[in-house]
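Section 5: illustrative case.
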C-alpha cells in the first residue's frame, strides 16, 4: 500500500499533527507514505520543485513536528484542479476540469489512496477525485469551524485561544485610555471564532454574520457603560459580519480565489466614534489566528484524525471524511460534509449566555 497525503486551502494549526499521526499509523502497517507539496501542485507541476514535488514521509521526516504550526508540505488555495484557471489570448480566464488527469498522475506515481486535509474547498475537490475513482479520505481542517457533520475541526481551538489572549491584552490598554477597541477576527461566513473568543474574553459587543447588526444598540450599550463609570468598551466583529442595511465587506477577489473578506472593523470603529463621540481604534488580528503553535486540543484532535484516516483506509472506507462525534471519531460521506456550511445557531447556549450577561449583538 502506498498512500499520499496533501494539505490544501488556508493552513490551520494542527496540520502537522495530522501528517505525523497518519505517517506513523501507516508506517506501523508497513505502508509507504508520500506527501504532495502545495496541495496537488507537487504532483501536477513537478518541474516547479527542484528537489521533487513529493516528499517521502518516514518516521524520521515527521519526528518532532506535532507541535509546529503550518504544514511541512506547504499549501495553496489557488489552482483548483477540478476548475483549473487558464488565461485566454484575449486576457480573459476560463476553467478546465483536470480531475481525470490528476487521478492518472496518482496512478502513474503508484499511489493507491489519498488522505487530503482541508476545508470545504479541498474536500469538494476530494469528492470529485473520489467520484473519478481515486480512493480518498478527507480530514476536516479549518480555523473557521464551519464544516458540517463534524463536532469540531482542528485549528479552531488555537484561533480562539490566540484571539482571546489578544482581546485580554486590549482590555488593559482600552481601560487606560478610555477608548473603544474594535477587534476584527477571521472566520469567513461563520461567527464561531468571534463568538467564542468574545464571550471568553468578556467583550461588550460581538457582531457575527449570523445576526445582521446595526450600531445604534452598540452605541447605547457603550453610553450605558459610560454612565456607570466604565469608560471603555471592546467590540468584537467577525470579518463576515453584515450591517442590517448594508453588504458584507470584501477586500477583493482574484480570478482563481475565494473572495477576501475584511474592512468591517474600520467601518464599525468609524461609525461608533461618530455615534458615541469616543475615540475608537481597530485591531485586525488576521492571519495571527492561523499561525504558531497549536493548542494541545488541536494537536490531539489532529492526531486522532490522522490515525483515524489510516484506520479508515484499512477498513475499506472510501469517499468519506473523518468526523468528530464525541466520544468517537467516525466516517461520514464527503458529500454530506460539504453540502452546507455550519454556521452559529442563533439560539445556541453561548449566545443565550452572552445575552444573559448583557453582551450586545447589535440587534
Ligand atoms: O478559511 C480560513 C481563513 O483564515 C478565513 O477565516 C479567512 O477568511 C481566509 O481563510 C483567509 O484566506 P487567505 O489566507 O487566502 O487570505
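Designed sequence:
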Amino acid at each position: 500500500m502506498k498512500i499520499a497525503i496533501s494539505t490544501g486551502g488556508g493552513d490551520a494549526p494542527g496540520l502537522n499533527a495530522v501528517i505525523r499521526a497518519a505517517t506513523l499509523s501507516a508506517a506501523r502497517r508497513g505502508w509507504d507514505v508520500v506527501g504532495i507539496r502545495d496541495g496537488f501542485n507537487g504532483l501536477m507541476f513537478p518541474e516547479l520543485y527542484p528537489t521533487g514535488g513529493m516528499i517521502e514521509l518516514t518516521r524520521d521526516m515527521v519526528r518532532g513536528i506535532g507541535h509546529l504550526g503550518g504544514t511541512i508540505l506547504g499549501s495553496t488555495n489557488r489552482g483548483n484542479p477540478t476548475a483549473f484557471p487558464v488565461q485566454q489570448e484575449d486576457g480573459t480566464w476560463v476553467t478546465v476540469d483536470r480531475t481525470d488527469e490528476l487521478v492518472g498522475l496518482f496512478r502513474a506515481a503508484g499511489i493507491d489512496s489519498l488522505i487530503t486535509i482541508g476545508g470545504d474547498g479541498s474536500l469538494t475537490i476530494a469528492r470529485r477525485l473520489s467520484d473519478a475513482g481515486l480512493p480518498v479520505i478527507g480530514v476536516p481542517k479549518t480555523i473557521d469551524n464551519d464544516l458540517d457533520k463534524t463536532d469540531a475541526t482542528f485549528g479552531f481551538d488555537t484561533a480562539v485561544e490566540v484571539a482571546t489572549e489578544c482581546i485580554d491584552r486590549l482590555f488593559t490598554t482600552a481601560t487606560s485610555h478610555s477608548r473603544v477597541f474594535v477587534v476584527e477576527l477571521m472566520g469567513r461566513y461563520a461567527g464561531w471564532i468571534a463568538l467564542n473568543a468574545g464571550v471568553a474574553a468578556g467583550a461588550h459587543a460581538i457582531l457575527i454574520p449570523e445576526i445582521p447588526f446595526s450600531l445604534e444598540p452598540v452605541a447605547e450599550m457603550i453610553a450605558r457603560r459610560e454612565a456607570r463609570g466604565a469608560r471603555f468598551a471592546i467590540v468584537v466583529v467577525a470579518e463576515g459580519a453584515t450591517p442590517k442595511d448594508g453588504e458584507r465587506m470584501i477586500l477583493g477577489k482574484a480570478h482563481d480565489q475565494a473572495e477576501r473578506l475584511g474592512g468591517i472593523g474600520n467601518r464599525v470603529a468609524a461609525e461608533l466614534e461618530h455615534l458615541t463621540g469616543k475615540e475608537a481604534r481597530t485591531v485586525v488580528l488576521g492571519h495571527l489566528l492561523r499561525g504558531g503553535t497549536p493548542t494541545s486540543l488541536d494537536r490531539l484532535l489532529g492526531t486522532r484524525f490522522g490515525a483515524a484516516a489510516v484506520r479508515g483506509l484499512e477498513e475499506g472506507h472510501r469517499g468519506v471524511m473523518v468526523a468528530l462525534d464525541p466520544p468517537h471519531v467516525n466516517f461520514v460521506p464527503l458529500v454530506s460534509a460539504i453540502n452546507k456550511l455550519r454556521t452559529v445557531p442563533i439560539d445556541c447556549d453561548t449566545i443565550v449566555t452572552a445575552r444573559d450577561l448583557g453582551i450586545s449583538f447589535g440587534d
